[in-house]
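TA notes. Do not distribute before section.
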Amino acid sequence: MTLKIGDQFTSELIVEEKHTAAAFGSGSIFVFSTPMMIGLMENAALKCAEMGLPEGQSTVGTFVNVKHMAATPMNMKVKAIATITEIEGKKLTFAVEAFDEKEKIGEGTHGRYVIDAEKFLKRVNEK
């Protein structure tokens, strides 16, 4: 594992109807949904972690603690930035932020845990 504190990755998307609270079922308005913002943040953290992991290893999310601070309309670009702030063995902690084209729309922390993908899936499939 070659990950280090300060490593960073950015994920982006253009808000489409499928990303809205109304489409997702988390609200009734056609604005970027909180679950999609969290998903974009998690994606940025996943991609950041994958840059420093050997083949066969991945990460799984363990916690999300974020606030969604501003609404974003359809057709606007949003980006999430994940930065590693702590590495404790296989536990990774990220500072996550989200922005639309006008302002910061979300921030918080996200945890991921490094796993051996094959062993993890074997254990899950034994349930």
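Switch to the second chain here.
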Amino acid sequence: MRVLIVDDHELFRAGLALLLRELFPNIELLHASTLSQGVNHALGELLNIVFLDLDLPDGHGCNALAELKESRPSLPVIVISADESVETISRCIELRAMGYVPKSSPPEALHAAISAVLAGGVFLPASSIARLRRDMGTDETPANGPVKAQSSGNSEMSNASELGLTPREFETLAWLVRGLPSKAIALRMGIEDITVRKYVSHLLAHFNLRRRTELIVTLADRGIKLGVPPVTDPAHDRSLSAVGRPRTD
């Protein structure tokens, strides 16, 4: 597994690296202290995932996430930030972050969060999920799928049958969670964009939701894991240039 850490605090990068190596002894880590360094790494390296701080010397707030996702649309990004406002968390989800980990998390919580996202799950602060669901109007909306939510610390991964999905719907869901827009998913899966949109509609109906952002919050709330994100190739992302900037719905 190859992971990029983009954070301007060397001590925090070192601590995060220790946690990652504890979870994955053979992990290969790349470090960047600025957004420009992070983008350069992302454009030139085969990577599974990026951990991104929002407060960088040359890129502040959600603009840093937007720039990184624009450069590498297929690369999953987990935001790790001292900003714990629900508004910032919600905006990052809209910008196709795969999850959000507060820097104030105690080591055991950070450990569980990292374990979850590297297993293909979505992690959001527990304190923010209820507010996000309420703001989105889904706090009392029943969702289909597994009856019992998994613990975020549970390493078991879901499969299509457990979620009541077809294999192609499950694959579409995994790419949606990792932050790809529908046209990029179509290229990845070798199918037409209209077919991907049909799968997305089925997924939203299956979970009784309306938008991708609601889906991300639901998956985080229920601790569903979809498998380790595959290595993404920057050369392939260049073929996505015609897709345009990712949608936020």
